Amino acid sequence: MKKIIFGITSLTLGGAERVLVDMVNQLSDTFDITIFTIYGKGELEKSLNNRIKIKRIFDKPYKELTKVEKISIPLKILCFQKQYYKKYIQGDYDIEIAFLEGPITRLFSTKNRNTKKIAWIHNDISKVYGNDLKAKLKLTIDKRIYNKYEKLIFVSKDNKEVFDIRYPNMKPTEEVIYNYIDSQKVIEKAKEKIDFSFDNKQMNFLTVARLVEQKGIDRLIRIHKELIANHFNNKFYIIGDGPEREKLEKLIKDEHLQETFFLLGAKENPYPYIKQANMFCLLSKFEGYGMVLEEAKILNKPIIITNTAAREAVENYKNAVIVENDEHEIYNKLKYIIENNIKTFDDKKQIYDNHHIIKELEKLLKEE
């Protein structure tokens, strides 16, 4: 049985994290799997089956670190990469997989002749770092880092194309494999009762996302304010947490939207909320594949997204619309939906099936 170690920053409540848990649970019958994290006690650790081993550098979660630790730890990992790799990761593994961009990809790139190296790329690499000097430096460093891998896996065609433009003539082979999610688990968890109810007298929009600049929640608050001011009544609910929370809470308060725009925080089980909302939104400034869209599709929810790489997730899903990545266009589409009380874009229920992805993953991991 091949021994494989997957690396991710932590197993908190995030899209890539949920994908990894579902994926390794499916693969653990065929492979000997270990998960390595930088930070411990992620909420999703308990969702791993008992065949999967866990290794970590720090036992406590990222949110419990001091401000100094949050700054110093990534720097230490960058400066003492080889030492951390030898102490915490290096073993008799056949394959080492960096499952997320950033510190994990740099850490897992440490040379090891006896191990095959694979890196997963979830995001639009041209936008994830920004455009300042620090971002350009990171892009330069990461080109060297990615060249140390034998294979690069992209979760969307769009992300692969953007990567190839930014980093032409790379040494590793490349492949696109869409993210896997356990659809039956989503359906069952969506049936759980929650101590919460939406206001059925108005259109209820729901987003599940980390509170980071990429997701454009501040933009959404401004659009929502304009809709309310023009008497297009609706309520917006955001499930998720992140570094932008305090700033967003202040913006909601400053704009007097506390009764119509709600930050619900992170939810271990967001599926009953998705199931009960009128419409699911992912109106990000940029995206990777947008794994939460797969979850919304499993629950047959109407979806509205901005024109990002996430469009691949809905290209064969008729109950979805794509709007241009612009405040004015988003406003107009939401206004139209509210004004016409649209509850679906397609009445036909679609059957969700993604078992072929596990076969693709097995084939990848069995390659010599």
Q: What can you tell me about this protein's structure?
A:
- The protein has a seven-stranded parallel β-sheet.
- By secondary structure, it is of the alpha/beta class.
- 37% of the residues are buried.
- It contains 14 helices and 13 strands.
- α8 (217-229) crosses α13 (327-339).
- It starts with a strand and ends with a helix.
- 38% of the residues lie in helices and 17% in strands.
Task: Summarize the SSE layout with pairings.
Elements: E1 3-8, H1 15-27, E2 32-37, E3 53-56, H2 67-79, H3 81-89, E4 95-98, H4 103-108, E5 116-121, H5 133-146, E6 151-154, H6 157-166, E7 173-176, H7 183-189, E8 203-208, H8 217-229, E9 234-239, H9 245-254, E10 261-265, H10 271-276, E11 279-282, H11 291-298, E12 303-306, H12 311-314, E13 320-323, H13 327-339, H14 355-366
Parallel strand pairs: 1-2, 1-4, 2-3, 4-5, 5-6, 6-7, 8-9, 8-11, 9-10, 11-12, 12-13
Helix pairs in contact: 8-13
